[in-house]
Amino acid sequence: MATVPLQSDAASRVVLRHLAATLAYRAAKVLRDVPPEFATRSFGDSTRVPVTIVAHLGDLMAWAVRMTRGGYEWKAEGGGDWNVEVARFFGNLEELDRALASDAFAGSIEKLIQGPFADALTHVGQLAMLRGMAGVPVRPESYARAEIVAGRVGLEQTPARAEFDGDASVKR
Fold this sequence. Notes:
mainly alpha
């Protein structure tokens, strides 16, 4: 069965920009207010330390920018400084948002979603779990109620509207 590629018109790219803003909102919540020792804390031999995951997030967004220009080359460029890597991630996400807003977009919407966006969301969730394991959990919230706006892709986000305590998965 042949698939029809998603159109890369301005309306479709607005959806990707909203996805980028969603990633920024969730990542900002996870990356803010961590104790300095969290960056290099080990959670076992088979798990990256948090700063390495953040560096990978920056690499994913740089890769996504290249993909908006029709390229697919991967480059691992991150380092070991938490603040530098957090800034690099958000800087690359801002560059990605500008590329998505541009009529010069030459990428594949499907490849951006299934590659860098899905991977980045996975790693933000991984960092959230590691924060919980480190004793500095992220408060849960109803993300469907969050004020997420296409184009707002920096570390500074609007405050959470509907945080709660406990586990929403538990039957009451």
